[in-house]
Structure formats: C-alpha cells, structure tokens
Amino acid sequence: MSIEFRNVTKRYGADRSAPLAVKGIGFVVPTGTLTTILGPSGCGKTTILRMIAGLEAPTSGQIIMAGKDVTTLGPVDRNVSMMFQSYALFPHMNVIDNVMYGLKMSGVPKPTAHARAVESLKNVGLVGFDERLPSELSGGQQQRVALSRALVLEPGVLLFDEPLSNLDARLRREMREEIRAIQQRLGLTVAYVTHDQSEALAVSDQIIVMDQGIIAQSGTPQDMYERPRSAFVAGFMGEAMLFPGAANADGSVQLGPLRVVPGQVAHVGAVKVAVRPEAWTIGNDAAGLPARLKKRAYLGNLYEYTFETVLGSIFVVSADLTSVIEPGAQVSLGLSSHGVSVVQGD
Q: CA angle 328-333-339, nearest 5°?
C-alpha cells in the first residue's frame, strides 16, 4: 500500500498565527518499500508519522493511501499499525496474549488469533516465549514482541517511531537488520522515524531529511550521503567539514592546493565544499596539503586524527592501524572524490 502526501501542512491549535510544524510538504512512499524520515528534534518527523497513522489531522493538503484519499479518516479505517519507542507492552499479559491483543479487539476468534500470534512470533525469532511476561524479557526480546504484535495485524502500512532508541549499540544493529529483513521478506510498506543517520542509511530505500517543517532533501541512502545538496544535509547525514572552494570550468574544484572532482556539477566560481573525514588521504606528497598532527584518538577499528593546516583544523579518520602518526608529525593530506560534495548554505 503506497503513501502520498500532497502539499500537507500541520499547525497545532486554532490560532492561525501559530507556527506550522509541517510546511506544505509532498512525498511518496512506494508500495513495499521502507522510507525513513530523518531529522533533529522538533523538525516535524513524528508529526508526519502521526498524520500517516491518522492520530493527527493535517491543517491542509491531502494524504493518499493505496490511491484513496484518507485525509479525514481515523486510524481504524487506514489499515496501519504503529510501533512506538516505548514498546507499550501490557505488563500483566504474557507474550502470546500481548501479540493476540489487537486481533481479539478486532473480533478475530481466539483459536485463529492464537495461531496467527504463534506464526508472528516465529517470524521474529521468539519461538517458545509464549508464556513469559514482559518483565522476564530482555530489551531486545521486548522489542521483538512489540514488532510481532504490529505484524500480526497484517497492516498495509507499518510505522516505526524511534523504535531502537532504548537499545544498546549491538542490539540496535541486530534489530535494524531484523526489521529490514522482515520488511523485505514480507514486502511491507514502512515509514520509519529516527534521528540516527547510520540507522537510516542501513535500513532505507528512501530517506527524507526534515529541517524545521520542510523537506531539506530526499533520495536514496547513497544520494543523501554522497550527494548532499546543502550544508545542513551533509552535516546531518554524518560528519562533514565545510570549506570555501572554487569550481573550475573542467568540472574540478580547487580546495587550497588540492584539486578534486566531486560527484555533482558545480557552476564556475566560488563554492562551498563539504568534506567527510574518510575522504582525506594521508601521505607525503609534495603536491598535497601540508598538515601537522595536533592530536589523535584510537577507537579500536580506526584512528581519529586532528591536523592543523592553512585551511584550518581538519578532522580525519583512518583505518590504517599499522602506520600510526605521532602528534607533531608533518604530513600532507590529499582528497579522494568519494566523500566530497559541493553544497549550498553556510
């Protein structure tokens, strides 16, 4: 089931002078795909999710699902299931009863509901957990129960609101892989809200980056990371430093003594260049950018370096764990084309 927003706005309260939380946005979530709505707190992403669910009505515009205008319909008429950050499991009910709850409320006979709940728990790897209470489960297991309860309703659209924020780093990785695998296996249409860019990159077919109620940019994960169109998007999709540069007629960009060919075409003249930490190469090339190492940090699988240069302080990550640079060492920095973008904004 597809989702489409057409020039949707949302203002809270009846005061027409109140600021808009969502400002005339439009996008499409194609059937069977996962779209992540990404952005900082207060950007409007959760408001969008609640409007898809029917928990909030837009102030203006249309919401189309499966080709039908659902703008004025409530949640029960939308075939949508939502999974919250808090899991919202009933503490006095065991796992199987938690998963069956929505089916029973919908009038599904108990034997049918039980069979569907067992199958749903199997889908999320929780065979044999039927009689346990939520308090007897780990955070990751509670997450799977909540996911199973959402899936058992066989929704046309599944919504996630910051679903992994309560888990530790290892469990977050496991669960995002699980959610993506289930979404692809069952062909679900998913809208997924998070503020975590690595999570968005890992699970999405499409990413929509929100900034103060508007869509800053949308596209594939590769588009958003490798070809950001603004300084805001470049910075939000991962660390990036902004430098003044000059675009040349041959498509290259001059950045101090360095010349690089970015992924986007730039108009000749002054430009802003966003450079990611992994784009820098460290060597002793006389044609490179002279740099002195100010400080370093060892993170196990990589080193983080901070260099002083004529372009200012530059942050570099390196996966080279054998040729370790000592503080105070003089090197030269070069640039690969990957991780270098011409952007708009300050």
A: 130
Residues 159 and 267 in one domain: no
Please say whether the beta carbons of 303 and 321 come within 8 A: yes
Identity (one letter) of the amino acid at 328?
G
The verdict on 216 and 243 lying in the same domain is no
Residue 182 belongs to domain spanning? 3-226
Considering 226, 241, 266, which residue would you say is the last residue of a domain? 226
CB proximity list for 138: less than 8 A, separation 6 or greater: none
**CA–CA distance from 125 to each of 118, 133, 142, 148, 151 (Å)?**
11, 17, 12, 10, 13
Q: Along the chain (346 residues), what's the average pLDDT of each consecutive run of 10 residues?
A: 95 84 95 94 91 94 94 89 79 92 89 92 87 88 87 88 79 84 89 90 95 95 91 89 89 87 79 92 87 95 94 93 92 88 76
Whose structure tokens read 């002083």?
308
For the chain, state the CA radius of gyration. Answer: 24
pLDDT of residue 304: 95
Q: Which two tokens stand for residue 193?
A: 């809200």
Q: What is the pLDDT of residue 270?
A: 87
Instruction: Record the tokens describing residue 89, joined without a space.
Output: 């499991």
Q: What is the pTM of this model?
A: 0.86
Give CA–CA dist 172/242, Å, rounded. Answer: 30
Phi and psi at residue 158, in whole multiples of 5°? -115, 130
